[in-house]
Predict the 3D structure of the following.
Amino acid sequence: MSFIRFDSGSAANGKLANGCEFCIRGSKMVLFVTGRCKAGCFYCPISAERKGRDTVYANECPAMNDDQIIEEAEAMDAEGTGITGGDPSENLDRTLHYIRLLKDHFGKDHHIHMYTSVISLENAKLLEEAGLDEIRYHPREDLWTCMDTTELEDIVKSVGMDVGIEVPALPGKEGELTELAGYATGVGVKFINLNELEFSETNWDMMEAHGYEIKDDLSAAVLGSEETAIKVMNALPDAPLHFCSSTFKDGVQLRNRLKRRAENIAREYDVVTEDGTILKGIVYSDDLDGAARYLKDNYDVPDDLILVDAERNRIETASWVLDEIAEELPFKCYIVEEYPTKDRLEVERTPLN
């Protein structure tokens, strides 16, 4: 065994792609630029609300304009952006605009990588000129054994940005994946990412039709996908291969991104959990301003631990304060756990009185 295993279940033969290093820290915004894609991959996991629709999301939030994209990046103190879809090449002008927008606002050190199935030298040159740092090609499965018919080699030789391959480790496709990875290594790509295949709500029927099964009850990973990736890594010990596990994507990458955003937006009274969620106390009253004065006058709760949230018709305060005084208050009180996303999705609420 020539590769290194990580705690998350991932593995690598060598140095990870630069974009992956940012993702491990959770410091990249995910910019979904369109749900359109012509590749037609049966395993596509994109949600029904995004698939095929020409919509834009910055992380979990719909983005209607440039300002909202910048605001989301600033909210998580993003060090970079991963541009995804659908296929960003389906709306290339929009993608080029966003690359320039982010580079102009955050500077050249804001690392941007992009996923696409369109292996085009012309597109690659335009993307690099706009400021793209790293491109990850996702060739269709029917191209895995005939990559010499694509422009991949010309792209690697013609551009200065990092060029890599990223595909799912399809069980039973060790031979095709090995041929793909061998060719890509031969023409000089910087990295080859093999992702653990996963079930989703939108691909479930097609995955079952191909005979795939769930790995276990704890994840959506496909049985045999990890083993397939490891076989390819063993067959090509000198290739720049990285197996990205389902556990890593959910347990490390997503959690770290949420935690980073939570720590960046947390108020004095918020508690950031290890999972990246936020705990706070909330108070309901027909007179929010009056209830806020009541907390200040009768319990000496300082101003920086009280916020009147008129939008949600509640008062926010410190969970540790409310836990001590809730039984004495004439208001309904709860401790809530929320995601640090713009919609502040509530995970759990616990009544205190």
The CA atoms of residues 153 and 187 lie 5 Å apart. The domain at 266-351 is CATH 3.30.70 (Alpha-Beta Plaits). The two ends are 58 Å apart (CA to CA).
